[in-house]
Structure formats: C-alpha cells, structure tokens
Amino acid sequence: MDKVVATALEAVADVPDGASLAVGGFGLSGVPNVLIQALFERGIGGLSVVSNNCGAMDSGLAVLLAAGRIARVTGSYIGANKEFARQYLAGELEVELIPQGTLAERMRAGGAGIPAFYTPAGVGTQVADGGLPWRYDGHGGIALASPPKEVRAFDDVEYVLEHGIRTDYALVRAARGDRHGNLVFNKSARNFNPLAAMAGRVTVAEVEELVEPGAIDPDAVHLPGIFVQRVVALTPDQAADKKIEQRTLTVPAAGKSVNG
C-alpha cells in the first residue's frame, strides 16, 4: 500500500480540535516540525499532547503552545521552556509529569496492546501516592492533583501500576522512509519517535528521504510500516532545517591556537 500523502496539510487534514497526539522528538532532535506547522496553519486547538517535552525556543510544539492550542501535556521535561512554565503555573495548561523511562514504556505498551504494567519507578513518591499538581489555580494553589496509583509487591519489592498510552494521532520524523511506511531514524533523532509512532492510532511520518519499497534492508528498519498510516516526503530545504538548541564553544588552552 502506497501511504505517501502529497503535503503535510493534507496529512493532518482530519485532525480535529481536542485530539490527542503522541509526538516524537527530544529537545530539537527528531521533531516533526513540518507536521506541527501544518497543524498550526489549520488552527487546530484544545490538543492533548504526549511528548517528552513541549518544544524549545520557538520550535516544535512550542509553536502550538505559544498560540494557546495545547490544553494538556503528558511529558517528562519542562526544561527551559519559559512559556510552558508560565502557562502551567498560571493554570492555563494541565500537565502530567511522568518519569522519562515510564513515559517511554507507557507509549510502547500502548502500541503493543499491553493495557498496563508494573514498574519500580516512582514508588514512595507522589508519582505513586498522588498529589502531583496537574493544574494550578493561578494563585499558587492546586486546582487538580494526580490520583494515587495501585502499588503491589513482587518478591518483596514494591511496584506501581502504570497504564499504556494510546492517542488519536501520532506525529514523527524519520531520516528515511519508504512508500509502505517503513522508517529509519538517524542516531539520537530516534529518541521517542518509534514509541510515539506505536502509540498513535493514526501515525503520520515526515521523512527526510523517501525511497521505494525494498530500498531499505529489512534488518535496518527501526519501525515497521504496520505502525505508520501516512508518509510525507520533505523538501531538501525542510530536511536540512535543523536548529541547534545550545551552542558550546571550547576555549583554547593558553598558548595554543584553535587548530591545536
């Protein structure tokens, strides 16, 4: 089945207001910026987003966040996103913070048809006991807190029950993809992308290089096409547009030039 869609706008044309989205990426690496921009251009709002973080600077999900299009975030890292923190503390945004490994496994489990699993991560903390602020009231108080979760002992070790995550849609970015939706990710850009793709009922992948079926060695496939419903081929300019979150320079040692 040829899953290629002509444009990003066409690929997200049926995403409604209030949809839930699993979105790949970590920081600025492996973020499906073109698909996110297409959602922005469509004016979609009230979104519930599952992603490690909610964009950085003015890139990725930060585009939707700054426009007030996101109602809820399930993620692990607020980080240096000041607008994210402002909306959260002001009571404008509901946020479920999850240990990073648990978030990854919850998406993988959802995609694998596993409804729930036990993990030691979070036992003895508010992750398990409840009380994490999901929404503030804008005046320093908590309007909505997380509920307690089931804790069970296995071999005298306590574990907390976590539920798999399924979303209406998933947006991911891959280095290569074929017309059947088989995807290959580049190094650290792999991050949450395969897991997000598994979690979505309808998964849309933007690919930097589109190839014909058979061009990717089956042993090299990171995510099989069974998890992908739509593929968008990026233009060379779109594929090359990769921002750097933080530039770091090394100061040469005294008496040495930059070239050593």
Feature tags:
alpha/beta, eight-stranded mixed sheet, 260 residues
Number of helices: 8
The oligomeric status of these chains comes to single chain
Instruction: Report the count of strand segments.
Output: 13
Task: Please give the radius of gyration in angstroms.
Answer: 20 Å
Content-based structural category = alpha/beta
Q: What percent of residues are in strands?
A: 25-35%
Distance between the termini: 54 Å
Helical proportion, percent range: 10-25%
Extract low-pLDDT stretches: none
Name the helix and strand elements from N-terminus to C-terminus, one letter apiece: HEHEHEHEHEHEEEEEEHEEH
Mean pLDDT: 94
Written account of the structure:
The strands form 3 sheets. Strands 1, 2, 3, 4, 10, 11, 12 and 13 form an 8-stranded mixed β-sheet that branches. Strands 5-9-8 form a 3-stranded antiparallel β-sheet. The termini are far apart. The protein has helices spanning 8-11, 33-42, 62-66, 82-89, 100-112, 126-129, 193-199, 236-240; strands at 20-23, 47-50, 70-75, 94-97, 116-119, 133-136, 142-145, 151-154, 157-163, 167-178, 183-184, 200-211, 230-233. By secondary structure, it is an alpha/beta fold.
SSE layout and pairing:
Layout: H1 8-11, E1 20-23, H2 33-42, E2 47-50, H3 62-66, E3 70-75, H4 82-89, E4 94-97, H5 100-112, E5 116-119, H6 126-129, E6 133-136, E7 142-145, E8 151-154, E9 157-163, E10 167-178, E11 183-184, H7 193-199, E12 200-211, E13 230-233, H8 236-240
Parallel strand pairs: 1-2, 1-10, 2-3, 3-4, 10-12, 12-13
Antiparallel strand pairs: 5-9, 6-7, 8-9, 10-11
